[in-house]
Fold:
Amino acid sequence: MNETTPVRSISALADERRASRPSSRAATRFDRWILGRMRERLRGIPLRVTLWDGTTLGLADVPEAAEVIVKDRRTLMALVRDPPVAFGDAYAGGRLAVRGDLVRLLEAIYRHWEGTPASLKRETRRWRPNDLRRARENIHYHYDIGNDFYRLWLDEQLVYTCAYFPSPETGLEEAQVAKLEHVCRKVGLRPGQTVVEAGCGWGALALHMARHHGVKVRAFNISTEQVRYARERARQEGLEGRVEFVEDDYRNIRGTYDVFVSVGMLEHVGPENYRAFGRVIDRSLSPQGRGLLHFIGRDRPRALNPWIRKRIFPGAYPPTLGEVTREVLEPASLCVLDVENLRRHYALTLTHWRERFEKTAQRVAEMFDESFVRAWRLYLAGSEVSFLTSYLQLFQLTFARGTAQIPWTRAELYR
Structure:
């Protein structure tokens, strides 16, 4: 499978059209035995499993959240061997269907399922180092599939990271602007300062900083489509002299800056590169410099969901706070100033994204195909549930040199 062409990779899951239709063969005694094995592993989940011939089995003595329909024996066997990858591939490929509330079903599974230490070790052994070539391939895989696709369901500024909701009733557009300003307040921006941003997406934060806080920004990104879009926005908004978008890897950042910011990139760096990332921050930050890392993380070390990592975000690894402080900040003698967990904000962000995506699903299918729609539906729903259940965290960590002037209180954040 070519990991630099996500549309073909996901679409390949639906190539076997015959397998996406229910089998006409009756379930055997062996099939029913396999179903019983699944019941033992998943007992208590409010779920009903139905095989291709109508054989059905409930897994809990409570009303079901959903019904999972397995359309052939091959899918049933795969679900036993490798549940996360098999479920995702079968759902995307149409060999497995879900009737009912997908989010509620996934939430029940996440709350029930806990990986064993042995499985976590196996996931660790599968990790592939994120060198310069692979980092570019991984980013291209997810982010360079077309700006038109992301325009369908992201906010107006194409901010593809966790929003900040002053209240749960706040709309997505307002919440994303609030997040940009929240970051600016945390690093204490002042007119005339210089900022470097590692991983800038479509440029919303860099442009917001320059426009509203009078700073100069150099923003690095290895996604060709995102950089092209960001440069055009800067030109249209008359900010070319204050914001420079550089198509290059964070490892090639040079110069000294007052502020270092990275929003939504650290989870793509890879644990083997944390110390190198820390050295980049160290050489980039002025003696009185401050910085912020905004990243998806974990409360304990473990790999990302294998289907997400294989089909959606190759190379991604959400670190713990301990890994970041120990491997990124401490070797550079950088002091942690503040940590905020915005997990609930990310769950709500994903709710908005999923609902917007569903409203444009037909258009997405026309751009790609139905298997692409199903894969992204599962990705967005699963990510939402990951934050709802605390399987994933969203950390904002601010830091500074030990000699830097730091705020006396947090009051400035909420004025």
